[in-house]
Design a protein that fits this description.
Blueprint: H1 3-25, H2 30-51, H3 58-61, H4 64-78, H5 80-85, H6 87-111, H7 117-138, H8 152-165, H9 171-192
Length: 200
C-alpha cells in the first residue's frame, strides 16, 4: 500500500467520523448515522464516478472504503464525547482526506483522458467536498463549503497545481503536489481562520 492510499484511508475515516457526529447532533437513529457517515466519506467519489461514467462507482467495487466508513461511524457513536473533546486531530485528518481525495479526483480525470483544466478542477473538487455537501443537504443545513474557512478553494488550488505541473513531472509527483497544496492550505486556513471575502 503506497502513502497516498494510507492518506485516503485516514481521510475516509475522518470524513465518516464527522458525518456520524453530525448525525448524532441531529439525533438521528443508528441507521441514519451510518448513512450520513457513508454519504460524507464516499459520496464525493460516487458523484465523480457517475459523472465520468466510471460505473459501478469505485466505492461499490472496492469495499474497503465502505468498511472504513462504517468503522469510523461506529467509533464516533461509541466515543462521541471523546471525538468532540479532541476535535482538532479529527480536523487535521479531515484536511489530509481533503488533499488525498482532491489528488485522486484530479488523477482520475487524467486517467480517463480529460486533460483540460475545467474537468480536472471539477473532478478534484467534487471528489474532495461532494460528500460533505451531501451530508449537509441531508441534515437540511447550508453546506459548509459555501461559508466556512477555506475548504473547497484549497481543493481547487491543489487541482490547479496538479494540472499545471502534470506535463513536466511524473504522475505521482503531481498527485503529491496536489495533496500538499490542498492539505497545507486547509491547515493554514484552520490555524489562522482564513475566509474568502463576503459581500456585505
Amino acid at each position: 500500500m503506497n502513502l497516498m492510499a494510507v492518506f485516503d484511508i485516514i481521510g475516509t475515516m475522518a470524513f465518516a467520523i464527522l458525518g456520524a457526529l453530525a448525525g448524532v447532533e441531529k439525533k438521528l437513529d443508528i441507521f441514519g448515522i451510518l448513512i450520513l457517515a457513508l454519504a460524507t466519506a464516499v459520496g464525493g467519489g460516487i458523484i465523480r464516478d457517475v459523472v465520468i461514467a466510471n460505473t459501478p462507482p469505485t466505492a461499490f467495487r472496492d469495499p474497503l472504503y465502505v468498511e472504513v466508513s462504517i468503522i469510523g461511524a461506529v467509533l464516533a457513536m461509541l466515543l462521541n464525547g471523546f471525538c468532540r473533546r479532541f476535535s482538532m486531530p479529527i480536523q487535521v485528518c479531515d484536511a489530509i482526506g481533503l488533499g488525498s481525495f482532491a489528488a485522486a479526483g484530479a488523477n482520475m480525470a487524467m486517467n480517463c483522458g480529460y486533460y483540460n483544466v475545467i474537468t480536472v478542477s471539477f473532478l478534484a473538487v467534487v471528489t474532495a467536498v461532494g460528500g460533505g455537501v451531501i451530508r449537509d443537504v441531508f441534515i437540511q443545513q447550508l453546506p459548509g463549503v459555501f461559508y466556512k474557512e477555506i475548504y473547497a478553494t484549497a481543493a481547487l488550488a491543489g487541482a490547479l497545481a496538479f494540472y499545471f505541473v502534470y506535463p513536466y513531472v511524473t504522475k505521482d509527483i503531481a498527485m503529491y503536489l496536489c495533496f500538499t497544496v490542498t492539505t497545507g492550505l486547509r491547515l493554514l486556513a484552520l490555524r489562522y481562520h482564513w475566509d474568502l471575502p463576503v459581500i456585505r
